[in-house]
Write a structure and sequence with these properties.
15 strands, five-stranded mixed β-sheet, Arc Repressor Mutant, subunit A, five-stranded antiparallel β-sheet, alpha+beta, 28 helices, elongated
Length: about 625
C-alpha cells in the first residue's frame, strides 16, 4: 500500500509525513481513536482517499486518509484489544487454563506494564465474565512464583513483565534492599514472610532481612515506637519460619513498652491486623499493671479498639472487671461515645445486667460532649438511628416514670434534629403508648383513666414489684447461665429463657400502662339517685321476672359470687347513670341480649374482713379492662 499512498502524495492529497502512519494502520488493520475507542479498518479506498472503519456503536464509518493519519493510533494484531475482536473464544479458553499467558498478553500490549485496574478493564467483562476477584487471586499466586513478573506491593503500582527470569526470593530481597525507610521495609518484609513457603532458601532470606530490621528498629525505638514494634513482630515471625537464634542486644517488644508509652495512642497507630498482638505484648511486658491500664484505655480509643480490649479482658477471665468499669463510666455519664457505640453493637446477654435506660442517658451525655470537640464523631448518633431495636431494648427494663424522664431528655437533646427525634419518639410510643400524651403535649382525657379500688391498685403494685425485683432479674440470670452452655443455635435452655424474657417484659409494659391510667378510690359517698360506681343495684330480669343484685366497683374489681362487677363490663355500662324504674338492654358475651328494670339503688358498704383471715383471702380475679 505504500506505493498507493506515495501516488496520493504526488497528487497532493497526502503529506509525505502521513505515509508511514497510514502504512502501519493498513498493516495492522486495527486502530484507536481518542473519542470513539477501538476500531477495525475494513476497507482502504485509494481512489477517494479514505478508510472504512468499524468502531463500537459506529460501524461503517468513513474517514479521510489524511485525517486518519493524524488522529488514529495503529493497534498491533497481537494486542489484547485486537485479539478480543478476532478471537474472543480463544482468549476465554486462555483465561480458564493459562492465567499467566493471558496476563503476559495484556502486559505486552501496554509496553510490558499495567496496573491491576488496567488489566481488569481490558479483560472484564468480555474475556472474564464471572468472578474477577476470585480469578485474580488465583492468578496472583501463580504470578508470584513465576520469575518473569514483578508483582507490586501496592495495587496502584504497575505489574511488570520482564524477559529475564528472576526468582521470587531474589526479587523480594532486591525490593527489600531498595526500600527506603523502616515502614517501606516492613511492607516488603511482610511480603517475604507471606511467601516464605515458596522461597528457595528461607534461612538465607531471614539472615539478610533480620539484621537490617534490627538496625532500623533501634533508630525508631523512641521517635516512632509503633513502627518499631510492628517491625519487631515481623522480625520475630521471620525468625520463627526461617530459623536462627535472637541476636545479642536486639530490642524486644518489652523494650518498646519500657518507655512508659500511652497504650491507647500506640494502639491507634498500629495496623488493624496487629492491634490484638500489640495488646498481648503489652500484657506480657506489664504483668502487674496491664489490667488497670487496659480498663482505663477502654474509654479513650475508637470502638474497634474497645472490642480488642474487651476481648482480651474476657479471654483472661476478667469479664467482671470489664463490667465493673462499664457500669461505673455509665453511671457517672463519663463513658465516651466510642465505648458506648461498641457496647451498643455488642449488646450480648453477657452484658444484660448493664444494658438499660442509664446507657441511653449516658449516650445522650456523650453525644452532647462530642458537639464541643474539634474532631467530633456522629457514629453513635447514626447507629442509634439505624438500629431500630436499640432504644426499645435499652428502655425495656425501665418503669414508666423513668421512660418519661428519658423521653423528656430526648426531646430536649441538641444531638438530633426534629425529624430524627420524631423517629426515635415513635419507637418509644410503639412500645409504651402511655407516653403519647407526654410527647403530643395533650392532657389525658378523663375517660382514659381507670377508676380502681385502693385494694386492687395495691395488688397491681405488688404484682409489678414482684415482676421487676424478682422475676425479671431471675430471668436475666437464667439467660446468662444458659448462654454459658455454648452454641446458642442448639441451646434450648437459652431459647426458653429468651422467650420467657419477652413474656415478662410484655407483662411489665402492660402493668406500667395500667398503673399509669389508674386512679384509686374508696367509692365513699357515691350518688344514689342514679347508678354510679360504688352503688349496689337491685334489678329484675324482665325475661324471667327474677330479682338480681349487682355491686358496681372499680376496673379491677370482680367477685361474681358476691355480685361485684367492674364498671367496664357490659352490664355495668348499661346500668350507669340510669335511675330507678328505668329499663336497660345490653348484649352479653356470646351475643345473647338481656333486659333489666332498675328497682333499687343504694351505697355499697364493703364488709370488714375478719382480723385472722385478712391475710388469707384469695386475690379476686381482675376483670379485663
Amino acid at each position: 500500500m505504500k506505493e498507493e499512498f506515495e501516488k496520493l502524495v504526488i497528487a497532493g492529497k497526502l503529506e509525505r509525513a502521513q505515509v508511514d502512519p497510514l502504512v502501519q494502520l493498513t498493516t495492522s488493520g486495527y486502530c484507536m481513536h481518542r473519542s470513539w475507542g477501538f476500531g477495525k479498518i475494513t476497507t482502504v479506498d485509494t481512489v477517494f482517499a479514505r478508510f472504512t472503519i468499524d468502531f463500537k456503536g459506529k460501524a461503517g464509518h468513513m474517514m479521510d486518509l489524511a485525517f486518519a493519519a493524524d488522529s488514529l493510533k495503529p493497534i498491533a494484531k497481537d494486542h489484547i484489544l485486537a485479539r478480543k475482536h478476532a478471537d474472543l473464544d480463544g482468549l476465554r479458553q486462555m483465561a480458564a487454563l493459562h492465567h499467566l499467558e493471558l496476563i503476559k498478553l495484556v502486559l505486552t500490549s501496554y509496553q510490558g506494564r499495567a496496573t491491576v485496574d488496567q488489566i481488569q478493564l481490558a479483560l472484564v467483562p468480555d474475556v472474564i465474565k464471572d468472578d474477577w476477584k476470585k480469578w485474580w487471586e488465583a492468578a496472583k499466586k501463580e504470578l508470584k512464583k513465576d520469575g518473569h513478573f514483578q508483582v507490586p506491593l501496592k495495587k496502584t503500582d504497575p505489574l511488570i513483565y520482564q524477559v529475564r527470569e528472576v526468582s521470587l526470593q531474589s526479587r523480594l530481597l532486591e525490593d527489600f534492599r531498595a526500600a527506603k525507610g523502616l515502614k517501606a521495609r516492613i511492607l516488603v518484609a511482610t511480603e517475604i514472610l507471606r511467601n516464605m513457603p515458596d522461597l528457595e532458601n528461607r534461612a538465607t532470606a531471614a539472615a539478610e532481612v533480620i539484621p537490617a530490621l534490627n538496625l532500623e528498629i533501634a533508630t525508631h525505638q523512641r521517635t516512632q515506637p509503633a513502627v518499631a514494634l510492628e517491625a519487631i513482630f515481623v522480625r520475630d515471625d521471620l525468625r520463627e519460619l526461617g530459623g536462627g537464634a535472637p541476636i545479642e542486644g536486639e530490642l524486644s517488644a518489652a523494650s518498646i513498652w519500657s518507655q512508659d508509652l500511652k497504650l491507647g495512642a500506640l494502639l491507634e497507630q498500629m495496623p488493624a491486623g496487629k492491634q490484638h498482638r500489640t495488646l498481648v505484648s503489652f500484657k506480657a511486658a506489664n504483668p502487674e499493671r496491664w489490667l488497670e491500664i487496659v480498663r482505663a484505655t477502654l474509654n479513650v480509643v475508637p470502638n474497634k479498639l474497645c472490642r480488642e480490649c474487651a476481648e482480651l479482658l474476657i479471654h483472661e477471665q476478667h469479664i467482671d472487671a470489664l463490667k465493673e468499669t462499664l457500669a461505673k463510666l455509665i453511671s457517672q455519664h463519663s463513658a465516651s461515645s466510642e465505648l458506648l457505640l461498641w457496647l451498643a453493637k455488642e449488646r450480648t446477654d453477657a452484658f444484660a445486667d448493664i444494658l438499660g435506660p442509664e446507657v441511653f442517658r449516658a449516650m445522650l451525655s456523650a453525644m452532647e460532649r462530642d458537639q464541643f470537640m474539634e474532631k467530633r464523631s456522629n457514629r453513635l448518633r447514626d447507629f442509634i438511628l439505624a438500629d431500630q431495636q436499640l432504644l426499645v431494648e435499652l428502655i425495656g427494663s425501665a418503669d414508666l416514670e423513668v421512660i418519661k424522664d428519658l423521653t423528656r431528655a430526648l426531646q430536649l437533646s441538641p444531638c438530633f434534629d426534629d425529624m430524627d427525634k420524631r423517629s426515635l419518639l415513635a419507637r418509644i410510643v410503639k412500645s409504651y403508648p402511655a407516653i403519647q400524651s407526654l410527647i403530643s403535649g395533650e392532657q389525658t382525657k378523663q375517660e382514659n383513666y381507670l377508676i380502681v379500688s385502693w385494694a386492687s391498685l395495691e395488688r397491681r403494685n405488688a404484682q409489678y414489684k414482684d415482676l421487676v425485683e424478682k422475676k425479671i432479674p431471675a430471668n436475666t440470670k437464667e439467660i446468662a447461665i444458659a448462654r454459658s452452655y455454648g452454641d446458642l443455635r442448639e441451646n434450648h435452655e437459652y431459647k426458653a429463657a429468651k422467650e420467657m424474657q419477652k413474656i415478662l417484659l410484655r407483662q411489665k409494659s402492660e402493668l406500667e400502662a395500667m398503673r399509669d391510667r389508674a386512679r384509686g378510690s374508696d367509692f365513699a359517698n357515691p350518688r344514689t339517685d342514679l347508678v354510679s360506681i360504688g352503688t349496689r343495684v337491685g334489678v329484675t330480669d324482665l325475661a324471667t321476672q327474677q330479682a338480681e343484685s349487682f355491686v358496681v366497683l372499680g376496673a379491677w374489681d370482680s367477685d361474681p359470687e358476691q355480685g361485684i362487677i367492674s364498671y367496664l363490663t357490659p352490664v355495668a355500662q348499661a346500668l350507669l347513670n340510669k335511675k330507678c324504674g328505668e329499663e336497660v338492654e345490653f348484649e352479653m358475651e356470646g351475643g345473647a341480649r338481656k333486659r333489666y328494670r332498675i328497682d333499687q339503688i343504694e351505697a355499697y358498704q364493703a364488709p370488714a374482713p375478719a382480723a385472722d383471715a385478712a391475710e388469707e383471702q384469695p386475690t379476686p380475679t381482675p376483670a379485663a379492662a
